[in-house]
Write a structure and sequence with these properties.
The protein is α/β, with parallel strands linked by helices. Helices cover 26% and strands 29% of the residues.
Length: 182
Amino acid sequence: MNVRIIAGKFGGRLIQAPEGKVTHPMSERVRGSLFNILGSKVNGAEVLDAFAGSGSIGLEALSRGASHVTFIERDRSANDILNKNITTLDTKAQTAVLQMNVGTWISQNTDKLYDVIFTDPPYSDMQFSTVSRLAQLLSPNGIMVLSYPGRGEVPPDIGIVVVDNRSYGTAALAFYQKEKTA
């Protein structure tokens, strides 16, 4: 299956996505809306793409001016496709790919903060405790976007403020912001 990068430096380029139910690539409509909402917040940002799948979200962020994206994906076949997509777009210097469980990675990463975090866990296992832990890796005024099933629940309290919530039929996006500390 192919996915199209919507806009920016790689706009119109096709990347691969795994077949089957290993991942659920975000539709072009939802991805377009996501990046329209984020606007310039992506430009120059340090980005984390957790549960990355094909990397379409993080690669879209790079296309729109993010400075660096760290991808975390534990599935081997999805990880292979992600690495091929990075090679296809020649973005190896702006990326880091880690093949591991997101929860394990969080336990090992305590020093780096991110301006934008995309989290798109498997819809069958939303892993809210892991999503809550990801929120602690946001830089002050950082944004975290959670993709979840359209009729699903969003984590009630993860220590950061919900600033927007959008529904797109079978998919929904919750936007969280970490407030600046005084």
